[in-house]
Amino acid sequence: MLSIFPRSVLERAVDPVSGIPAKIKFLNLAAIRELLDAWAEEDHETQQRLERAARLALPGPPPDPEADKRILKGLRELSDHLKSGFGPSSI
After folding, report:
1. Half-sphere exposure of 5 toward its Cβ, with a 13 Å CA cutoff?
2. How far apart are CA 46 and CA 44, in angstroms?
3. What is the DSSP string of 8-59?
4. CA-closest candidate to residue 12, choices 32, 46, 36
5. What is the pTM of this model?
6. Distance (Å, whole) CA 90 – CA 82
């Protein structure tokens, strides 16, 4: 039965502090199998998460100088408007 589980799950299972000896009072194959299945699922999810994190991110869009100029112009206009103060005529 143990041969179907990955090595990391088996290492976790034989740990006397947090493995099967610490989780199951009476050796029952069904209970052991349930515990190993749960640990195998956790191990699989962890591996998938690590693989996703290790993937390289897609490159960003190429720089667009025209868009940068428009954004800078808009920020300057906004800054000038805010510096001029607020009043009924500015709305």
Report:
1. 22
2. 5
3. HHHHHHT-TTTSHHHH-SS--HHHHHHHHHHHHHHHHHHHHHHHHHHSPPPP
4. 36
5. 0.57
6. 10
Pairwise pLDDT comparison (76 vs 56), residue with the higher score: 76
Q: At 53, is the pLDDT very low, low, confident or very high (cuts 50, 70, 90)? A: confident
Domain that residue 36 falls in: 1-91
Burial of 9 (0-12, 13-18, 19+ CB in 10 A): buried
**What pLDDT, on the 0 to 100 scale, is given for residue 54?**
86
* DSSP label of 5: S
Name the residue among 18, 64, 7 with its Cα closest to residue 40: 7
Q: Hey, what are 78's tokens?
A: 């906004």
How far is residue 90 from each of residues 11, 72, 75, 85, 86, measured CA to CA in Å? 71, 22, 17, 8, 6
Tokens representing residue 82 in the block: 């805010």
- Number of independent structural domains in the chain: 1
